[in-house]
Write a structure and sequence with these properties.
CATH architecture of the largest domain: 3-Layer(aba) Sandwich
Number of domains: 3
Helix content: 10-25%
Number of strands: 28
Shape: globular
Strand order of the largest sheet: 13-14-18-15-21-22-27-28
Structural class: alpha+beta
């Protein structure tokens, strides 16, 4: 028997059926590339042209719409098709877009083929100096924004031409105080099967040239990809500097001038007669998955931890007269950098004499933001017998939810399959997971549904859960890290990172033989990036990493430096 749709139902469905006929064809001309290209074609649809559509994709409720498809060997003039079957964010399908006027732009995020040492061949977007950002990556093709009208009752085929290309990014230039270093890593080159490099921006102490006999302690400032050493300026901001810029997060006008003033104030402190002379280093370790490597060895990213510790830091200390011993090295950072600072202290306990970890990414995976990675079955929903409640992904200091974990992960899934979005949950997966059968990171959970893979979670636990590792190995680690761990976090962290800090604090307070002798502090109602100064608003303290911990570093050196250590040549 032939099934027929009732007439009234057909009338109700008609708008969706008509909109489902809208298709976009995205292509590039031979003038941009005569060769076929691999990558991810991203189509962005926005309601406003105040900025380019590609700059409007975010976790905010005002986000633009985005769709994505992988392309392999896309030829000049050949079209990548975006239709109603392609998964999107926040709407999952083109058929769900309402009729009306929109602004459309497309991007081709280029992938490179890597033949790795482990025998796998993978296609990934190599960082090209931009900090792993598909919007600005040099060489990525994109289209000019164009206005379109989605019309009910008509079939539409819209062509989008990728006739623009992102330009190269200039290399930063050396100054009197800021130097730049770039080395090819033997370890990483061997792993990836092509030349791989590590870089750093080094802030030299005042009097470096005038005191050639001095050797200096080193502070490793971990964080996201730095295009140059930031927060340091030899000139004050102009008195008439524009102060009309507005920062919604801080509800503040003129923040750019505040930032510029803080940078100049740091220069004055740095060159003051009482400031201790040391090296401050920001490293560049952007890679094919993210804007940094998390500074550890990883099955998917390669031996970045060892490359940084045994290749890059010794070269920096050789060139710039670092003391080069564990008692004279410290590390600090916030967010990703907070996790990295603590991880460096845990995985290389003798190499550092103290870590200052602010608002660290989850340092205990049984508080992986808002859920327990080991006991919960689903990352996106808490589930009972009769309902499923979405898990929040971000909040403000009042607890008002910005987005859910599902929404953030679906945005990443549109931006890149196989953990290739270049964003937060995908890089955790790339760093912490074992290699999957296809050569890409094994999924910790189904990216579409949120269902957790318990076997992958167990691998994470044994290799990267910092609380578990400290608890498991305290007998050997404890004597090496006692007195070195300092953790700071706002109790209203936007990403719920304080939850894991609470668990770490409980352990550090209770552990014995030896006692941890650690410090854990919280900022009342403070959001992400609170880093330990209760006397200043966070919009100020977050700009003072390089001066906040100096007193504690000096006390630690005085207490722990070995007999005969150089405590004078750098105190001029």
């Amino acid at each position: 028997m032939r099934y027929q749709i009732p007439f009234l139902v057909l009338i109700c469905l008609l708008p969706s059926i008509v909109r489902a006929q809208t298709t976009f064809s995205v292509s590039f001309p031979a003038s941009q590339s005569g060769q076929p290209l691999d990558g991810r074609v991203l189509l962005i649809i926005a309601k406003t042209d105040k900025t380019e559509p590609r700059l409007q994709v975010s976790d905010a409720v005002e986000t633009a719409q985005i769709f994505g498809v992988d392309v392999n060997g896309l030829k000049p003039g050949q079209a990548a098709l975006i239709d109603a079957s392609v998964f999107g964010y926040p709407e999952r399908s083109l058929r769900n877009l309402k009729p009306g006027d929109y602004y459309v732009q497309a991007v081709l995020h280029k992938y490179e083929t890597f033949k790795r040492k482990d025998g796998h061949t993978v296609k990934l977007p190599m960082d090209r100096g931009e900090g792993q950002n598909w919007r600005t990556a040099p060489g990525n093709l994109f289209s000019k924004p164009q206005k379109i009208s989605l019309k009910p009752g008509s079939r539409q085929a819209i062509a989008v031409l990728l006739d623009q290309v992102n330009p190269p990014i200039p290399e930063p230039k050396d100054t009197k105080f800021i130097k730049h270093i770039n080395i090819q890593s033997k370890r990483l080159t061997e792993f990836w099967g092509r030349p791989m490099f590590l870089g750093a921006h080094v802030l030299l102490p005042a009097g470096f040239d005038e005191h050639p006999e001095a050797r200096y302690p080193l502070c490793l400032f971990h964080g996201h990809f730095p295009d140059d050493f930031s927060g340091f300026s030899e000139t004050p901001p102009p008195a008439n500097m524009d102060t009309t810029d507005y920062i919604e997060r801080f509800k503040l006008y003129g923040y750019k001038k505040i930032v510029a003033q803080e940078a100049y104030d740091f220069y004055k402190k740095w060159t003051g007669k009482d400031f201790p002379r040391m090296l401050i280093v920001e490293i560049q370790h952007a890679n094919p998955y993210y804007d940094d490597s998390y500074a550890v060895n990883s099955a998917n990213l390669g031996p970045y931890g060892d490359a940084i510790m045994y290749e890059l830091l010794p070269e920096i200390e050789r060139q710039f007269r670092g003391i080069g011993q564990g008692w004279a090295r410290f590390t600090y950072g916030g967010s990703t950098g907070g996790w990295e600072a603590l991880a460096a202290q845990v995985f290389y306990p003798d190499a550092f004499n103290g870590c200052f970890a602010a608002c660290p990414d989850p340092i205990a995976f049984d508080a992986y933001t808002v859920f327990n990675l080991y006991k919960d079955k689903n990352a996106y929903y808490s589930e009972g017998p009769f309902r499923r409640t979405p898990r929040p992904g971000q909040r403000n200091y009042l607890g008002q939810v910005k987005c859910t974990l599902e929404e953030t992960n679906h945005r990443e899934l549109v931006m890149g399959t196989h953990s290739r979005s270049g964003d937060q949950f995908d890089i955790w997966e790339a760093v912490y997971s074992p290699v999957g059968p296809d050569g890409y990171p094994k999924r910790i959970w189904n990216k579409l549904t949120g269902d957790i893979d318990a076997t992958v979670a167990e691998y994470w636990r044994e290799h990267y859960d910092l609380l578990h590792i400290l608890r498991r190995d305290w007998k050997t680690l404890g004597p090496k890290v006692a007195g070195k761990i300092h953790i700071y976090c706002g109790d209203m962290d936007n990403y719920y990172l304080n939850n894991a800090v609470y668990l770490m604090e409980d352990f550090l307070k209770s552990v014995q033989n030896p006692s941890a002798s650690s410090e854990v502090a919280y900022g009342d109602r403070a959001e992400h990036c609170w880093n330990g100064d209760p006397t200043q608003p966070n919009y100020i303290s977050r700009l003072r990493y390089n001066t906040m911990y100096v007193d504690k570093i000096l006390r630690r050196i005085e207490q722990s430096a070995p007999k005969g250590a150089d405590l004078k040549s750098w105190r001029y």
